[in-house]
Amino acid sequence: MNISTYKLTNASGMTVTVTNLGGAIVKLEVPDKNGKLRDVVLGLDSAEDYATKKHPYFGVVAGRFANRIKNGRFTLDGCEYQLETNDGEQHLHGGFAGFDKKIWQVEEATASKIVLTYNSPGGEANYPGNLNVCMTYSLCSENILRIDYHATTDTKTICNLTNHSYFNLSGHTEGDILDHELELVADKYTPVDEGLIPTGELADVTGTPFDFRMAKAIGRDIAAAGGYDHNYVLRAPGKAAVAYSPKSGIRMTVFTNSPGIQLYTGNMIEEGQAGKGTTYGKHSGFCLETQIFPDAINHARFPSCVVEKGCPQEFYTEFMFEAGNF
């Protein structure tokens, strides 16, 4: 199967370019406050580069289990599974060859929608069950990019899917994102240990650097937080986050029915990281990964990531873009 790209467009000029390699969003152009289109996601020069160049999951679908599982181990119905450990001692984003490295089947492609599928066989990265995933990108006239995830299995398994786009609402060539204002609709977050694995606590954000209930600059408390790479407990389905670039006037609002959202501020992007006609560095972009909580299978009080035969797992995420002086 060949690596290809597909471009979605709408009447306002917004475009979304997707590749079937990893289901990655490689370009996302939205109008700024002056009507000029800006590409607001980090990425690589070509779709083929996603197969050959090292990159920190730019724009891809992370799975079969996005984020981390402690020591790559979990137990399901009394059976213990040992997954690949590709992040030190931890399992990250599906292992060494997760969904980000797979060529997805294009089932439908129109000017405003693309439907991608991937069938993950039982035993891939040591996961149980044959998991069939369908993902749809839709671009509407209101400058909303919607992602729908649908997963089914023939045997009980675990699944946690997300999109790993790095956003820079000033434009992907415009330096760091520390001046971006961010609001998260979350009163609690899940603290992590030195391996970035949740401790199991659901901690109140009040009085901590992790409080984004009122919009503030991402850089304001980032040093006190040690950089953000944390899952937030969303209050309810619906609005999850609002990010804004004072430079471009672009505001992005995130909606989802996922229980959590991971804020990652590109702390580990290496200086000189290859990009689209440029290079990136630390804090060049931020991720808002809608998800089930990291290591959820090993914490009974976390939302369930288990998928059973006959019970599809379904989540959506919407990114709405507006521009002005907010």
Provide an overview of this structure:
The chain is globular, with a radius of gyration of 18 Å. It is an all-beta fold and 326 residues long. The protein is 2% helix and 40% strand. Strand 3 and strand 4 (37-39) form a beta hairpin. It has a single domain, classed as Distorted Sandwich (Beta-galactosidase, Chain A, domain 5). The mean pLDDT is 97. The chain has a nine-stranded antiparallel beta sheet, with no helix packed on it. The chain has a five-stranded antiparallel beta sheet with strand order 18-17-20-23-26, with no helix packed on it. A four-stranded antiparallel beta sheet has the order 1-2-3-4, with no helix packed on it.
Overview in brief:
The chain is mainly beta. It contains two helices and 28 strands.
Summary keywords:
5-stranded antiparallel sheet; mainly beta; about 325 residues; Beta-galactosidase, Chain A, domain 5; globular
